[in-house]
Amino acid sequence: MTADFLLLLIAIIAGATLQVGVGVGFSIVVAPIMMVMFGTATAVPVLLMLNTLVSAAAIDARVWTTERSLIKNAILGCLIGIVLGLLVYPYLSERVVLSLTATLLLIGVITTWLPMKSHISLLGYKAVSGLSGLATVWAATPGPLMMFGLLAIGRPAKEARKLVQPIALVAYGVAFALHGLTDWQVFITAPNLPQFALAALGGSILGRLIGPKLPANVITNAIRVISVIACAALFYRAYFTP
User: Fold this and answer.
1) Helix extents (H) in 89-140
2) What span, in angstroms and rounded, lies between the C-alpha atoms of 69 and 213?
3) Which of 73, 105, 124, 157 is most buried, with most CB under 10 Å away?
4) Distance, CA of 202 to CA of 161 (rounded, Å)
């Protein structure tokens, strides 16, 4: 087992724990390492597959029934963003894709510190969901935008942590399927997929144990910190990595 492979496994476990416990974090922790090791073209579909697995493991079945309308609206927005992202993707360079995704995340972080006299409308929430769909297919990092949208409509952080999972499951799953249709060979030739999947499931179990014990302010601040780290990583990848 090489040092790079061990580091990636640890990142996958840590990322899955954050994703389930806080609501975001998997791609932010794993993507920079995986993109450096495998390149963006291979890393993105692998990240989408692992994120789908983690989101499925994180779902609270009660959320589907109690928040069906909100989830449907979020999923609709995400799907529109995913389709638009795939249509635009071939015309953008990797640098532009990464920079745009980082900018979207940075805007989301800033909005959490702005004083808001009222919560955003349902239309605004759909727009945020659409932007998270773009981030899904471009760099597999939609989680913070989904969470920012839920917080912006007035959902408490501990509730948003659960609500984001079914939305992410559909967004990641659809994006992964669409990526597979365009270039399945890139995914199936990626190394160590079974080991990565087992590490993701292990981290998901840890997240389910830790998540309910986290205070709301810890979740909100963790989302901010994770998002800022993601922005820095994406900008670094775009402008300073050959």
Assistant:
1) 94-111, 122-139
2) 27
3) 105
4) 19
Residue in 74, 152, 139 with CA at minimum distance from that of residue 109? 152
Whether the Cβ atoms of residue 150 and residue 119 lie closer than 8 Å to each other: no
Nearest to 105 by CA among 199, 218, 225: 225
C-alpha–C-alpha distance, residues 7 and 211, integer Å: 24
Global pTM? 0.78
DSSP character at residue 89: G
In eight-state DSSP terms, residue 120 is P
Name residues whose C-beta falls within 8 Å of residue 160's C-beta, 6 or more positions apart in sequence.
Answer: 23, 147, 150, 151, 219
What backbone phi and psi angles, to 5 degrees, belong to 4? -65, -40
> CA end-to-end span of the chain, whole Å?
26
198: left (phi over 0), alpha (psi -120 to 50) or beta: alpha
> Rounded to an integer, what is the distance from CA 85 to the centroid of its chain?
15
Q: CB neighbours of 164 closer than 8 A, spacing ≥ 6?
A: 23, 24, 143, 146, 147, 150
Distance CA 153, CA 151 (A): 6
Q: Report residue 117 as tokens.
A: 């006299």
Sequence spans of domains, the chain: 3-239
The residue with tokens 């635009």 is 88
